[in-house]
């Protein structure tokens, strides 16, 4: 699947070819985690082999095309930061990524804002990074991205503010776009000896951090929480009142 630094040679096996083939097929079907951080990779190949892949780390390489990952439709986290990618695949590619939540694309070579907006087809994307890309310097970049990807909660380490998605709503400083209260560091941290379980734990931790910031700094969410609490208390009062007069 990958071109770049040659993989280490592995010892020969005394098993017959049929047994080896069957074992390799089972390994491929269970392949859910890939870490190729900083391995000087420069190309990916189309492959059905990794359709079961859930977490894929390909950061700090020389990759220029991510389209061969189109078969990896089970991805929940994809890290391609610090490569040389110029083009974001079209909406067909992203619409198949129904489980993708975290996408790291910062420090690449994306230029066209319209091209990046194809990410809007990714239905459950929560977090996206595009900073240190030429496109992030475009006028209105953040406004366009957060209003194109409706599921997005955070862009470039700042939670999306209500002010950004509700037109003409002036909010106090605490709730304004890029407020310090909306900062949330989601920079990917590569743990030594990383595996699927560790990466999944880290991913869930990042999502919980995002949700915590949203819960405390979104007037809409705060209001919804207050209304739900009010209605719940009202329902309990009604039930209690009925119970008291029944006896």
Automatic annotation (TrEMBL):
UniProt biased composition (Basic and acidic residues): 1-11
Protein name: Leucine rich repeats and IQ motif containing 3
Gene this protein is translated from: LRRIQ3
Record's compositionally biased regions (Polar residues): 12-21
Xref: InterPro entries: LRR-IQ_domain_protein (IPR052859), LRR_dom_sf (IPR032675)
Species annotation: Sarcophilus harrisii
Region described as Disordered: 1-21
């Amino acid at each position: 699947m990958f071109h770049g630094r040659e993989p280490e040679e592995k010892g020969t096996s005394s098993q017959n070819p049929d047994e080896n083939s069957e074992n390799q097929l089972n390994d491929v079907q269970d392949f859910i985690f890939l870490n190729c951080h900083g391995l000087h990779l420069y190309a990916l190949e189309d492959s059905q082999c990794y359709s079961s892949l859930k977490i894929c780390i390909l950061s700090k390489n020389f990759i220029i095309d991510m389209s061969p990952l189109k078969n990896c439709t089970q991805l929940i986290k994809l890290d391609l930061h610090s490569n040389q990618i110029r083009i974001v695949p079209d909406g067909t590619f992203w619409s198949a990524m129904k489980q993708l939540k975290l996408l790291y694309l910062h420090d690449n070579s994306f230029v066209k804002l319209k091209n990046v907006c194809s990410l809007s087809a990714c239905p459950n994307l929560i977090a996206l990074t595009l900073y240190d890309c030429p496109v992030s310097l475009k006028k209105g970049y953040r406004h366009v991205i957060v209003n194109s990807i409706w599921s997005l909660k955070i862009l470039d380490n700042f939670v999306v503010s209500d002010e950004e998605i509700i037109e003409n709503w002036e909010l106090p400083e605490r709730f304004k776009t890029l407020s310090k209260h909306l900062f949330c560091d989601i920079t990917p941290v590569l743990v030594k000896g990383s595996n699927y379980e560790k990466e999944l734990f880290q991913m869930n931790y990042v999502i919980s951090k995002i949700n915590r910031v949203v819960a405390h700094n979104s007037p809409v969410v705060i209001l919804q929480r207050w209304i739900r609490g009010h209605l719940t208390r009202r329902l309990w009062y009604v039930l209690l009142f009925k119970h008291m007069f029944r006896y």
